[in-house]
Amino acid sequence: MSRRSPFVIELSDEDRARLEALVRRRTAEQRMALRARIVLAAANGEENASIAERVGVALNTVIKWRKRFFEEGMGGLADRKRSGRPRTFPPSGHR
To answer: I want to staple 70 with a disulfide (CB 3.0 to 4.6 A). Which of 7, 17, 86, 89 is the partner?
Structure first.
């Protein structure tokens, strides 16, 4: 049983062009390209479950990025600052 998302994505021509460019750009971060694919599919009326299956991610991942884009636009696709102490890595050659 499928349910329509309350977060209906309607893209401006500018946003659609930016998202499509992100997906096509070979140097784009893969996670940003994935988020762009999710939003484009949502804007084309595809349901969350079908997007998740097609792009190979969990349903909750699709719901998260669809909602963030709906609420915040393009800026919502960026990583957020994480709380807590930043990870540190030892100098090369040490374990």
So the answer is: 7
